Amino acid sequence: MPAESLLHVTTPDKQPHVVAVAVERVEAAIAAWGRRDATAFDHLQLAPARTDFSAHAREAMCAIPFGSMATYGDLAAEIGNPRASRAIGTACAQNPIPLIVPCHRVVPQHTVDAMRQRDELRAKNGGAKDVRSGVAVGGKGVRSGAKNSAENSELAGLGRLDVGNYAIGSDLKYALLEFEGALG
Q: Where does the Methylated-DNA-[protein]-cysteine S-methyltransferase DNA binding domain lie (predicted)?
């Protein structure tokens, strides 16, 4: 999708300098996000969503703080339609600007449940860490701090969290959530 269609450009003739300025703003915002600036995209004016539902879904996605996540069900309830979690998933999948409208922060309920289970196991094992990376419970391998091999097996059984699908790939979604610190 061309850059001029992603941002709200009001010039009818789409003057090249207006588009260039819009692209510069997006590039600056992405660079700020890369420095973990939680407000990096707040100043960008986006083109209107195609439907009211999409507009409400977009607003709800943009309200999820940097480093946080919400479930599809949470967003559906947030916009006043608690049974629309699948429609929220569709809105996320059809999001044309996934980093700016942070659909990667929307995850399935089972991800939240797995994180809760992981945190309970981590607490039970005295804050066990992944020996290879120093990251708390999240990869495969032996964790320091686990009291016995059964506890290590229990933690290893969780493996990498399934954060759900993403239009550009679940590995990228996982990496974005990890970068933002949302995975704990």
A: 53-110
